[in-house]
């Protein structure tokens, strides 16, 4: 089970609405042609319940409005991929805060803090998948769900920058010091 709580109070209201407070999701393997592992890395889908018991009656896209009838059976799916499987030429969106970014990030990543994402979404390409990363995967999961909700193709990087670093993927810092995941 993927546990996205505790929630970050700096997440914009629409992102909370999509994931709900105290959100939990269940990972499901991605479908492979013929049901066999062909060695090709693919995102897996994460199914996320959005029922009233978790979202306190908030409805996706409707700030502060109650879900009629409770909405316990509503679910969302979000693609997720292991850090080691992110394509080399991927558009990587880092949604961490500035101090985290400065300490260490992927060399080609684009930095838009989660709190700025709604205002800056127009800066993101609409014609290619967005691979979204944060420190451990919670904030990026919320960002990926919201981006998918508004019609973008977004994939969460499972385990975030901690998994990125553990997989030996390249990192740089903005401080002149060796990069690290803050």
Topology of this structure?
Blueprint: E1 2-3, H1 13-19, E2 24-28, E3 44-49, H2 52-55, E4 75-82, E5 91-94, H3 98-103, E6 110-111, H4 117-120, E7 130-133, H5 138-149, E8 154-158, H6 160-166
Parallel strand pairs: 4-8, 5-6, 5-7, 7-8
Antiparallel strand pairs: 1-2, 2-3, 3-4
Q: Can you put this structure into words, describing what you see?
A:
There is one protein chain. The protein has an 8-stranded mixed β-sheet. It is globular, with a radius of gyration of 16 Å. The protein has 6 helices and 8 strands; from the N terminus they run E-H-E-E-H-E-E-H-E-H-E-H-E-H. The chain has 182 residues and is α/β, with parallel strands linked by helices. 22% of the residues lie in helices and 20% in strands. The longest helix has 12 residues, at 138-149. Helix 3 links the parallel strand 5 (91-94) and strand 6 (110-111).
Q: For the report, how would you describe the main beta sheet?
A: 8 strands, mixed
Query: What is the global morphology?
Result: globular
Oligomer: single chain
Tally the helices.
6
Into which percentage range does the β-strand content fall?
A: 15-25%
Give the low-confidence spans: 1-35, 50-73
Rg, rounded, reads 16 Å
Q: What is the helical fraction, as a range of percent?
A: 10-25%
Q: Structural class, judged by helices and strands? A: alpha/beta
Number of strands: 8
**Mean of residue pLDDT?**
73
Q: Note the gap between the termini.
A: 24 Å
| Strands side by side in the biggest sheet | 1-2-3-4-8-7-5-6
